[in-house]
Amino acid sequence: MPRALKDLTVLVSAGPTQERIDPVRFISNRSSGKQGFEIARAAMDAGAKVTLVSGPVNLKTPDGIERVDVRTAAEMKSAVMSRIDKYDVFFAVAAVTDFQPKELLEQKLKRPHDPKKSELTIHLRTTDDIVHAVTAKRKRPYVVGFAAETNNIIQNAREKLKRKKMDVIVVNDVSDPTIGFEGDENQVTVVFPESERRLERQSKYKIAKKIIELVARALPRST
User: Fold this and answer.
1) Which residues are CB-contacts of 100 (< 8 A; sequence separation ≥ 6)?
2) 94 close to 53: Cβ distance less than 8 angstroms
3) Distance in angstroms (rounded) separating the CA atoms of residues 10 and 2
């Protein structure tokens, strides 16, 4: 299906987000953005017009793709929600940071001089759920979510698929240090409401191409 997404518009979120603790520290995760960038490239190769909303990563934007750079979960949500009505398919590949400090410190947090004061408590709150905000819209695109799990992989993916009202979810096992995150290869399971398709270990671009093919077949005819 070389032009499976011809004439469709695709929005992809990719990479991590960062939540500031103080001017020099932040909370984030290990996402490199590689799988999201390959999804964007594969969607473009399949004929789609693609916009990529990316967290802070050190990756080159594929030629022909519009890129929007963000840093925080709030910035990513704003970038997605301000554009989402123009798109047919949303690939939510980004590893959005789930928590942020309740208090943003304006000055650098100093290390205590007293060696007995070795503990620090930072109170966290959850960030906004971007996928849920998209699927809650009355008129919404076809939504493909991504999940990184360490246990009960398929069970957790199916629960998330139903709870967030996504159309498809792609899940991988990040307890395996040789795939996902910083690596150039991945191994995933594409979970639909009534079926599953396991994609064995291969390059992230080949994984992306296969995901695009599976999603293209599942898209409603009116999309």
Assistant:
1) 19, 27, 72, 73, 124, 125, 126, 127
2) yes
3) 16
Contact 184, 203 (CB under 8 A): yes
Q: What is the pLDDT of residues 167-214, one digit of tens each?
A: 999 999 887 776 667 788 999 999 999 999 999 999 999 999 999 999
- Catalytic residue, chosen from 29, 151, 156, 172, is 29
pTM of the model as a whole: 0.93
Q: Spell out the residues 6+ positions from residue 13 whose beta carbon is closer than 8 angstroms to its own.
A: 36, 52, 53, 54, 76, 80, 90, 91, 92, 93, 94, 96, 130
Q: Which of 204, 203, 88 is nearest to 146 (CA)?
A: 204
CA max distance for the chain: 67
pLDDT per residue as tens digits for the range 21-60: 999 999 999 899 999 999 999 999 999 999 999 999 999 9
Q: Are 209 and 42 in contact (CB under 8 A)?
A: yes
Angle of helix 34-45 relative to helix 204-218, nearest 10 degrees?
50
Residue 122 token pair? 């930072």
Q: What Rg value do the Cα atoms of the chain yield, rounded?
A: 18
What is the C-alpha to C-alpha distance for residues 208 and 216, in angstroms, rounded to an integer?
12
The answer to whether 29 is a known catalytic residue is yes
Write the pLDDT tens digit of every residue in 91-117. Answer: 999 999 999 999 989 999 888 888 888
Beta pairing, strands 168-173 & 185-192: antiparallel
